[in-house]
Amino acid sequence: MTKKLEFPSNFLWGGATAASQIEGAYNVDGKSLSAIEMIPFIELKDRKDLSQTRKLTTQDLLDSIENKKGLHYPKRFGIDFYHKYKEDIALFKEAGMKVFRMSVAWTRIFPNGDETEPNRKGLEFYKNVFEECKKQGLEIMVTINHFDMPFSIIQKYGGWKNRQVIDMYFKYSKTLIDEFHSYVRYWLPFNEINLGVLFSAMGLEGNNEEKSLAERLAGTYQDLHNQFVAQAKFIEYSKKFSNTKVGCMVADTTTYAIDCNPVNVLENQRKEQMKKFFYYDVMTKGEYPSYSKRYFKENGINIVKEKTDDELLKNNTVEFLSFSYYMSSTIAKEEVELTEGNLMKMGKNPFLVATEWGWQIDPIGLRYCLNQLWDRYHLPLFISENGMGVLETLNENNTVDDDYRIEYLSRHFEQMSEAIKDGVNLFGYTMWTPIDVVSAGSNEMSKRYGLIFVDYDDYHRGTGNRFKKKSFTWFQNFMKTSEV
Ligand code: BGP
Fold first, then answer.
1. What is the pTM of this model?
2. 327 Cβ inside 6 Å of ligand 1
3. What does UniProt list as catalytic (predicted)?
4. E strands of 55-131, at which residues?
5. Ligand 1 atom closest to Cα of residue 251
6. Is 366 exposed, middle or buried (0-12, 13-18, 19+ CB in 10 A)?
């Protein structure tokens, strides 16, 4: 039984990607390496504080891994979007997409972060990509920094804890908007700003286990403060261009109290405050929320600010909210049983099933989240990532019969349309991803999300050819009929 969903005619349907997961061409046209591209090559003990790896050069690290294993690390090669962007953009258009969310690699524009002039070859590449999108009639949303800080910024400056990095980020983001404001309407300064605390590879120190919890927390919130300031500086500058809009991007996970025990309900509220609302609150209201002040006090966190920071934050808030949504989780005061899976372990919910990676599928949780954000902020909403990662291979007909993905997308689209009927101002959706990419969390190709299959394996072996999955045709039809 098919069902017709209601969406506004100008709803922005599309797909999302990130430079370090698709581009490849890691050493081409002046590009340097970002820490996230280097991380698997760095000895585990050194990963905790990347600024300590300064004795090694990027080339040393590359040489050592090539010699030791002789294998290709997929993130450095991506899906070779650098050379195949025309083919891929044409496929997105063919699927019926209206918007393409992509990120720019900082390492192509200011390879070491501290150059005075941008790398023209890097700018040229993105200009060509944007021209191609324009030719195909695709709107563009750019993530300025999607997990990929130039490695040398961490080696030389220590990452976000150093306020000089704010200036480097500003120089980079200003260059992008100066060059590309006529192509790009939607800008997201940081991807999943609330998740960065997990990854030292992004120049943040939240996971440095050699430090005490108190030191880590203090470092985490100081890094974040500097990111908020960098974002506000970019927003302030962007006001010069009347056709652009700047939004935020938060990894949103709907959480439920495990039961109706008030202790657990309160615990869920506290988690929601510090793990999600804190970020939206700072970026929409331009000040630290009251509950965070108590949290900072109790945890001995004392954020070092410059005199002008508060005013800068206050005057430069985002115009829309965007978020990724993959799953929901349960919360209790005591530990709850966790799902099996990598990276993101969730509190188990007996009413839901999980993907092979333990990500619990919850379309209703998306409607819940949309209503929550709309009620609280009354700002336009955009779902900048949502999708299902699965191990897949091509069948004898050179396709993938991914009915599970069709089901996943249908149920999420259904709940989005319900949320719109609830009165939520949701103006777009970019699935993760329109095409298979290298996974951010596991660094492998085999966790596939795309409507389009890419013939590379975990060691970048394969033809790189693109094949349409069953979901591609399904999505194409959905764009014409709104039927699920
Ligand atoms: C988000 C990231 C993406 C993406 C996605 C899926 O957190 O913004 O870059 O990769 O998650 O995660 P994974 O690739 O680990 O499956």
1. 0.94
2. no
3. 385 (nucleophile)
4. 99-103
5. 7
6. buried
- Both tokens of 145, joined, read 């920094």
State how far the Cα of 118 lies from the Cα of 68, in Å rounded to an integer: 34
For strands 320-331 and 245-257, give the pairing: parallel
pLDDT tens for 185-236 read: 999 999 999 986 555 555 555 556 667 777 778 888 999 999 999 999 999 9
> How much distance in Å is there from the Cα of 21 to the middle of ligand 1?
9
Q: Could you give the 3-state DSSP secondary structure of residue 175?
A: helix
Q: How far apart are CA 101 and CA 323, in angstroms?
A: 13
Question: Structural domain tally of the chain?
Answer: 1
Name the closest-CA residue to atom 15, ligand 1.
441
Inside any domain, residue 354: yes
Tokens encoding 324: 């990724």
Closest approach atom of ligand 1 to CA 439: 14
- CA distance linking residue 296 with residue 135, whole number of Å: 50
Does the CA dihedral 192-145-50-216 come out positive or negative? negative
Ligand 1 atom with the smallest distance to the CA of 447 is 16
Ligand 1 atom, smallest distance to 147 CA: 9
The CA 439 to ligand 1 mean position distance, Å, reads 6
Main-chain dihedrals φ then ψ at residue 257, nearest 5 degrees: -65, 140
ipTM for the predicted complex: 0.98
CATH number at residue 378: 3.20.20.80
Ligand 1 within 6 A of CB of 432: yes
Element (H, E) at 416: helix 403-421
What confidence category does residue 70 fall into, taking pLDDT thresholds of 50, 70 and 90? very low
Q: Where are the beta strands (DSSP E) in 258-409?
A: 320-331, 381-385
Whether residue 7 lies inside any domain: the answer is no
Q: How far is CA 112 from CA 40, 150, 162, 218, in A?
A: 20, 6, 15, 27
Nearest CA to ligand 1 atom 11: 440
| CA-atom Rg of the chain in angstroms | 21
Q: How far is CA 412 from CA 325, 326, 358, 382, in A?
A: 10, 10, 18, 14
For residue 444, the CA-to-ligand 1 centroid distance in Å is 11
Query: What mean pLDDT is predicted for residues 112-133?
Result: 98
Alpha carbons 336 and 469: distance in angstroms, whole number: 37
Pair of tokens at residue 252: 């949103």
Q: Is residue 289 part of a domain?
A: yes
> How is residue 343 annotated by DSSP?
S
Domain coverage including residue 344: 12-481
Active site residue 392: no
356 in any annotated domain:
yes
* Residue of 385, 392, 414, 418 with catalytic role: 385
Query: In this structure, which amino acid lies at residue 235?
Result: I
